[in-house]
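Hi support team,

I'm filing this because I wasn't sure whether my run with 2-acetamido-2-deoxy-beta-D-glucopyranose finished correctly. The job status page said complete, but I'd like someone to confirm that the output block is well-formed before I use it downstream. Pasting the exact inputs I used:
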Amino acid sequence: MANPVKYQCLAIAAWVVLLLPFCRAEPSQNTEAEALLKWKQSLGNQSIMSSWVNPASNNSTASNPCKWLGITCNKVGNVIELNLAYTGLQGTLLHLNFSSFPNLLRLDLKFNKLTGPIPADIGMLSNLQFLDLSTNSLNGTVPISLGNLTKVVEIDVSRNGLTGKLWSGLFPDGTSPAKTGLISLQRLLAQTTMLGGRIPSEVGNMKNLEALILDNNYFFGPIPPSLGNLSKLDTLRLNENQFSGNIPRNFGSLKLIDLRLFINKLSGPIPEEIGNLSSLVVFSLAVNNFSGHLPQQMCRGGKLVNFTAAFNNFTGPIPKSLKNCTSLYRVRLENNTLTGNVDQDFGVYPNLTYIDLSYNRLRGNISSKWSECQNLTVLKIAGNMIDGKIPEEIGLLKKLGELDLSYNQLSGEIPTQILKLSALSSLILNNNNFSGYIPMGIGGLPELQKLHLSSNMLIGRIPDQVGDCFRLLSLNLSNNLLNGTIPHNIGTLSALQNFLDLSHNLLSGEIPPQLGDLKGLENLNLSHNNLTGTVPDSLGKMLSLSAIDLSYNCLEGPLPDSNAFRSSPPEAFSNNKALCGEIHDLRPCNSTSAKRNARDTDHKLMIIVVSAVGSLFFAIVILGCIVVYFCKYRRNQQEDEYPLRSKNLFSIRNFDGKVAYEDIINATDDFDDIHCIGVGGSAKVYQAKLPSGQVVAVKKLSSPTEGMEIEDLKSFTSEIATLTEIRHRNIVKLYGFCSHGRHSFLVYEFMERGSLANILSSEKGAKELDWAQRVKVVKGVAYALSYMHHDCMPPIIHRDISSKNVLLDSELEAHVSDFGTARFLKQGSSNWTTVAGTFGYIAPEFSYTMAVTEKCDVYSFGVLALEVLKGSHPRELIPSLHPSARQGIQLQEELDPRLSFPRDQKIVADLEAILKLALSCLCADPKSRPSMHGVSQILELEMRMGNN
Ligand SMILES: *[C@@H]1O[C@H](CO)[C@@H](O)[C@H](O)[C@H]1NC(C)=O
Ligand SMILES: *[C@@H]1O[C@H](CO)[C@@H](O)[C@H](O)[C@H]1NC(C)=O
Ligand SMILES: *[C@@H]1O[C@H](CO)[C@@H](O)[C@H](O)[C@H]1NC(C)=O
Ligand SMILES: *[C@@H]1O[C@H](CO)[C@@H](O)[C@H](O)[C@H]1NC(C)=O
Ligand SMILES: *[C@@H]1O[C@H](CO)[C@@H](O)[C@H](O)[C@H]1NC(C)=O
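And here is everything the job wrote out:
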C-alpha cells in the first residue's frame, strides 16, 4: 500500500518540478506589478504612469505590467526593461523595491526630476546591464552595493543637480567666475543637491563594465585603483568633479577609448603606461594640477581626436607621437611649461580645427607646413619663444578665425597674405618684433573684431581702411613707430567698445573730432605721441568712455567737461602744451581764447624778462578778458535759465529734423484711440506713421513737467537729452521728448512685436518664442542693464524692469524700453522723483529703505528671467526664496509647459545657467546679488563656451 502512495507522491513531485519553469512567470509578474504600482503610488499622480493599471479589471494586483508604458518584458512575461527617460517623472526611487526585478536588464530614467538618494538595494538587480540615471537631481553617495551589479555594462549617473559646468568651466581667457566677483553664485552651487562622495572601491567588482560616466557631480577623494581591474572599461568620464590624487598606474592596462578627467584636483605625473592605451580617441586632462612629462606615446594607436592638457603644470617635451597623429581634431596644451619646437614636433593634421599651444616654452619658427592644416579655425601659440617670420602661406588657411601669436620674438613684416583670411575675427600679434607697415587692405577683413598689433616696430601711417572693419571691438596699435595723423574714419568704427589704444607712437596732427562718434568706447589712450591742437569737444560726448589718457602730447586749450575727463587721474593730461579746464590741477581756461592763453604761457618768461611794464600791461589785459568773459557767461546763463518756459517746448533730438510736433499730432489724429497700441500704468502708447514713412511709437504723458521747479525742469530736459544719445541694440531708442501746452510725449523707436508680457500671455506667441529665442531675450535684457549700470556715467537705473517694459522687434530680439524715464512715467505722484516699479518685480529691501540702487534692477531682472523660462510670472517661487528653499528647484519644473523640454543639450545648459543666475538675482540681501556686469559676462561665456 505504501508503495503506490509513495510513487504517486514522487510523480506529483516530478510533475511539479517539470512544470515549475513554465509556471514561474505568473507569481513573479505579480510581484513586479505590485512593486511598480507601489512605486507609482509613492510618486503621487503622474500622468505618465496612467497606463499602469490592469486594462481589463480594476484589480491592480492581477494586472499585466508588460503592456504598461515604459515597461518591456521577455517572452515569459518578466520585466526586463524599465525606461521612463525624458518623461518629466518626479519623486524618489526610495519606494521602488528593486528586489522584485531579478530579470531587469535595463533601467533608464535619464532626464527627469528624480530627487533623493540612489537606494542601496539597487545592488539586488543582479542581472542589470544598463543603468542610466543621468540628468536628474539625485543626491547622496553612490551605494557600495553597486559593486554587486557584476553584469552591468554601462553606468551613467552624470549631471545630477544643476550642472557644475558653468562655474568650473574652462574659460577662453583662463579666467574663472570667482575672479568676476560672483562668489555668491558659487555658494549657491554648493547648496544645490547633487551626487557626491567617494567612489567605493567595490566598483572594481563590475567585471563587465564598459562605460562609467560620473561627470558633473560632486565626487571627491581618489580615483579607486580597482577601476584598473575592469578589463572591458573603454569609457571613463570623471570630469567636472573634485577628484584628487593621482591617476592609478594600472590604468595603462585598460582598453580606454574615452578618458575625461578635466576640471578636477588631480595631481602627480601621468603614468608612462598611459602611453600603452592604443585605442584612445578622447583624452582630456585640462585644469588639474598634473605635473611631470606627458606620455611620449600618447597617440600610439593613431586614433587620438581630442587631446587637452591645458592649465596644468606639465613640463618636458611635446609627446613624440603627436607629430604623425593625423587624426587630431582639437588640441589644447596651453598654460603648461612644455618645451619643444613648433616646427619639428608637429606635423600636418588634415582634420585639426583648434590648437592652442600658448604660454609654454616652445621654440622654432612657424613653418609653411601649418598652412596645410586646412580645417584650422583657431591657431594660438602666444607666449612662447618663437622667432622668424610668419610664412606667406598663412593665407591658405581659409577657415582661420583666430590667430594669436602674441608675446613671441617674431619678426619681419606682417605678410599681406593675411588679408586673404576672410574669416579672421581676431588677429593678435602684439609684443613681437614685427617691422614694416600695417597691411594696407586691413579693412578688407570683414569679420575682424580684435586687432592687436601693439609693442612691435611697425612704421608708416595707420591705414585709412581700418575704418572699414566695422565689427572691430578693440584696436591696439600702441608702442610702435607709427606716424602721420590719426585717420578720421576711425570714428566710423561704431562697434568699438573695449579699447582704442594708439599710445606710444609718433602720431601728429590734431585729434579728429570724429572720434567722438565712438559712443560705445570705454578706453581711449592717445598718450605719448606728438598730437597738437585742441581736444575736440566731441570727446566729451562719448557716453561709454570711462578712461582716457592724453598725456605726453602737445595739446592745448580746454578739456571737455564730462565724467570720463573728470574721473581720469591728472596724469592722464600731464605733459602737454597748454591744456586748461576746471578739473584737476589744470590752469582754468580764464581767457576768451585758449590759444592765446597757451601762447602767453610760452612767452611768459620772456615777457617778464623783457619788461615788467609789459608784464603789468598784460596782466591788465587778462583781467579785462576775465571781466568780459564773466559778463558774457552770466548773460548766457540767464538766457539758458528759461528754455522750458519758451512758448513751445520742443526738444526732439537726434531725430529727423523735419519731424515736428504737428506731424505727430496729425499721424495720430490728435491721439485718437484707433492709433493706440498699448496702455501702461501711466501713459498711452500710440503708433504714428510719419510723412517720411517712418513708424514711431509715441508715449503720451500727463504733463510731467507741470509744477516742476526750474531746477528740476532743467535736469529733466538734460536727462532726456542724454537718454536720446544712448545707442544699444537692446535698448529701445528714445528719439526725443516733446511738450506743448496740451500734450507731452516721448517718441520712441517702434517695436513690431510689442511687449514680452503680451507675447507670453498668448498661446501662439509663447510657442513662437522658442527656447533659443528666450535665451536670447534674457541675454538681451542683461546686456542692456549691464550697459546702463556699468558703461554709463553716472549709472542709469531703470527702476521698473518688467515684462511690460521689454519689447520685441520683428526678429524677436529684446529691447528694454523706458530706460531712465521710468521714474517720471508713473502717474499720480506729485513728485516725479518718487520711485516707480511694478508689483511683483520690486526688490524686497525697497519697501523699507526706499533706496533705489542697481541691485533693485538686478532683482527685477531675476523675476523677469524666471518669467521668460516659466512663461508666466513666477509668483509662487519668489516668497520661498531663502537659500534652503532653493535646493529643490529644478529646471524641468520651471519651464513653460507650452513648450516641450529642449532636446538640445546646449540649450538645456543655457537654460540652467539662466535659472541659476535668476535665483541668485533674487537673494533677499542686495549685496549677495550679482552685478549685471557679472550676469551678462557669465551668460556671454556660457553661450560661447560650448565645450572644454
Ligand atoms: C485581485 O486579484 C487577486 C488575485 O488574482 C485576488 O486575490 C484579490 O482578491 C482580487 N482583488 C479584488 C479587489 O478583486
Ligand atoms: C551584495 O552582495 C553581498 C555579498 O556578495 C551581500 O552580502 C549583500 O547583501 C549584497 N547587497 C545587496 C544590496 O544586494
Ligand atoms: C538630498 O536632498 C534633500 C532635499 O532635496 C535633503 O533633504 C537631503 O538632506 C539631501 N541629502 C544629502 C545626502 O545631501
Ligand atoms: C572632440 O571635441 C569636439 C569639440 O569639443 C566635439 O564636438 C567632438 O564631438 C569631440 N570628438 C569626440 C570623438 O569626442
Ligand atoms: C610646477 O612644477 C614646478 C617644477 O616641477 C614646481 O617647482 C612648481 O611648484 C609647480 N607649480 C605648481 C603650481 O604646482
